[in-house]
Amino acid sequence: MPFVGRPGAVPSGVAGELPRSRASAHLVGVAEWSLMTSPLLRLLPLALLSRLVGWVARQRLWRRVRLPLLRLYARHYRVDLGEAESALDAYPTFEAFFTRRLRLGSRPVAEAPLVSPCDGRVGPPVEITAGAAITAKGHPYRLDGLLGPLSHWAGRLHGGRWLTLYLSPRDYHRYHAPAAMAVVESCRIVGRRWPVNGWGIDHIPDLFVENERVVVAAETPMGWPLVMVFVAALNVGRVELHGVCPPAGRAGHHRWELAAGEEMGYFSLGSTILLLLPPTAPPLLGRPGEAPIRVGEALASATPAGR
Length: 307
Prior knowledge:
- The chain is of the alpha+beta class.
- The chain folds into two domains: 20-98, no CATH class; 120-293, no CATH class.
- Helices cover 24% and strands 22% of the residues.
- It has eight helices and 14 strands.
- Strands 1, 2, 3, 4, 5, 7, 8, 9, 11, 13 and 14 form an eleven-stranded antiparallel beta sheet that branches. A three-stranded antiparallel beta sheet has the order 6-12-10, with no helix packed on it.
- The chain starts with 19 loop residues before the first helix and ends in a 14-residue tail after the last strand.
C-alpha cells in the first residue's frame, strides 16, 4: 500500500454565525463588492500579476525575514507544520514551502478503485449529460470547451460524473494519481487566471473554461478511462506534471504509467482539480457537499457501476 508522509491531524474550525442584521449587511456588502470587482478584474493583467507573484515566491530571502513571514502564513491559514517533510527553516523560498512534501506515512492510500488525488474539499458529484455538466453552483460547462484539444474524450464520459476538488492556501499542494492508470494524452490550454475561490465560482459562469488549465486523459487497467483537469488560478503561476510535458493548444500522446496514490505533480499555490469519470467507473461514495478530503482517501467503492 503506498504512503505519503506520516500520520498527522488536520486542524479544523467552523466560523461563527453573524447575527441576522449584521449578516444581511455583510451579504449586501459582498454583493456590492462583487458587482464592482467583476468588470474591474477583466481589465487587470491577471496572468502578468500571477507571473509576478510566482517570481517573488521563488526569491531567496534572508532567514530572519523569511522565517517570520512563513510562520505568519502558517498561522493565518492554519497549516499543519507537523506533517511537513522538513523543518520550516529548511525551505529557502515561499514556493519551496508551498510545494512541500509530507512526512512518510501521513497519507495512506485506501484499497479502493478510486482515491482522492489531493488534499482539499470535494464538491457533490454532478452528472455529465449531452456533452455538458451543470455544477453545484448551477453553471453549465460544455466538455468540448473545457477539454479543448482533448474534446474527443467527451463521448466516453457521457452519463458519467464530474467531481470538483478545491485546494486552499493551507492545503498540501501536490497531487497524486487517483487510480492505477496510464496517462495517454495531455494538453495545456492557455487562458486567464481568475481566482478559483467561492467568489470566482459564484460570479464567473465560464470560470473553468476561461482559466488556463492542463488536461490529462488516462486509461485504467479496470477498463474505464478518466480525465483530470488541473485549473490554474490567480497567483498560481505553474501547474507542473512530473512525467509528461503537455503541449500548448494541441494533444500530446504519451504512455505514463502510474500506481494509485503516486505523485503526479504540484500547483505553485492552491487551485482546483476537476475529475471526470465515465458511467462505467465504480460508484462514488456518498459525501456531504464541500466535504474535506485528503490524498488517498476512497472516492468510490469496489462494486462495479450498474450492479
